[in-house]
Specification:
Growth Hormone, Chain: A
Length: about 400
């Protein structure tokens, strides 16, 4: 649902640009300010989730983003819609720290990357549904573009009510067996403590995660904001025709999300170290992104779909393993804060990439320079992560606790 609400604007972008005279740089600013607020809120929300837990944090986030999402109907310009994107970004920023917190609450370390891959795949379900649902609402039912925001906002409200009714921590869950609870809690639990930014930033492990997010998140943001526009420009697709190619792309991304998490979990289960398993999976996924460099020269739409879909699969598999890094090497009470800093870094990178994409599309008029960056980003990210943390050594928790209590 987060991805549905986030992507409605990108699916509508070609039509709204033609109707209201949007420029490429104006749309890029829409993406830029979304990511600015997203990144800042990501840091704060990570700390909040550390304190209040996944249940309350997730509920508050969904309520806030739904308000922002529906507010889009009040504007027709990119400068106006920026104001609606701000609460949407702030609310959505908390969803990933909350999801990681829920994963840490419910899964032991050996299963965590697979769990992250599965809920990452859930994000892709939203990306699959959006290019089918939006044209159905706008074109088939003839309800207009504003109805797309209203209907999808209502879906988020339904989810919010269900989350609040059913989600509980393992210790509070009424139907969980003792055996299941013991398995989930097989790693000793550390109570929450205040975390200083200086404490986090003094660790190599945090910088590996931060730099990894800075390098790979902008590519995914670009896919989310501009893929419908790419197919519109490159193959003259209308709003009604976006569905099949975008569905295919995000189905491949789904496979990559689960596959990347499964691969590292499988290797760990065979006795491979966490360090080697995660990096092996990330290397395989990074190679999947390289062929996107040729997407603009594809002889047909479906060849382009295959190349872009392979890159999206690579991103999702890579991110499932990178996002597991904080849970692998930091105590649970620090995970949300580390993830928040990584989200800020990813948003900063995304802002730079959005500005770059807007300028390139307005001046060059081609996606080729954008896809060349995407092709190289994951191999560069893996190299940077490996140089910073050659081994996944857990941080010295005693030092962290002493600094937190000082």
């Amino acid at each position: 649902l987060s991805y549905i609400d986030r992507l409605v604007i990108s699916v509508l972008k070609p039509d709204l640009s033609a109707r209201y005279g949007w420029t490429e740089t104006g749309y890029a600013d829409l993406a830029l300010y979304f990511q600015l607020v997203y990144g800042l809120a990501y840091v704060v929300s990570g700390r909040i989730v550390d304190r209040v837990g996944a249940r309350v944090g997730y509920a508050a986030a969904v309520a806030l983003w739904t308000v922002g999402h529906v507010l889009h109907i009040a504007f027709t310009t990119t400068s106006g819609m920026i104001w609606a994107r701000l609460p949407l970004a702030a609310g959505e920023a908390a969803t990933f720290p909350a999801a990681l917190a829920a994963t840490a609450e419910w899964f032991p370390k050996r299963e965590r990357a697979l769990a992250i891959g599965i809920f990452n795949a859930g994000s892709n379900v939203g990306a699959i549904v959006t290019p089918l649902l939006v044209p159905f609402i706008v074109v088939t039912l003839g309800l207009g573009w504003r109805a797309a925001f209203i209907v999808t906002g209502a879906l988020s409200i339904v989810w919010l009510l269900a989350w609040w009714r059913f989600y509980r921590r393992p210790a509070d869950h009424p139907t969980l067996s003792r055996e299941e609870r013991d398995w989930i809690q097989s790693e000793p639990e550390v109570p929450p403590r205040p975390v200083r930014w200086s404490t986090i930033l003094r660790t190599r492990q945090s910088w590996a995660y931060i730099m990894g997010r800075f390098l790979i998140d902008p590519i995914w943001w670009t896919f989310l904001f501009w893929l419908p526009d790419f197919f519109s420009r490159q193959f003259n697709l209308s709003l009604r025709e976006f569905g099949p190619p975008l569905v295919a792309v995000y189905l491949l991304a789904d496979i990559g999300s689960v596959g990347g998490g499964w691969l590292s979990s499988r290797l760990i289960g065979r006795g491979i170290t966490v360090n080697r398993a995660r990096k092996t999976a990330m290397f395989v996924c990074a190679l999947c992104a390289v062929p996107i460099a040729f997407a603009t020269a594809a002889p047909s739409m479906w060849v382009a779909v295959a190349l872009i879909g392979l890159a999206c699969a690579g991103h999702q598999g890579f991110s499932a393993n990178l996002y597991a890094l904080p849970g692998d090497v930091f105590p649970r009470w620090m995970v949300g804060s580390v993830v928040g800093l990584g989200g800020l870094a990813g948003a900063i990178g995304g802002m730079l990439m959005a500005k770059y994409a807007g300028i390139i599309l307005e001046t060059v008029g081609s996606f080729e320079p954008i896809f060349l960056v995407a092709a190289a980003a994951y191999l560069v990210a893996l190299l940077v992560v490996h140089l910073i943390v050659p081994r996944y050594d857990p941080v010295d928790e005693r030092t962290l606790v002493a600094e937190a209590e000082a």
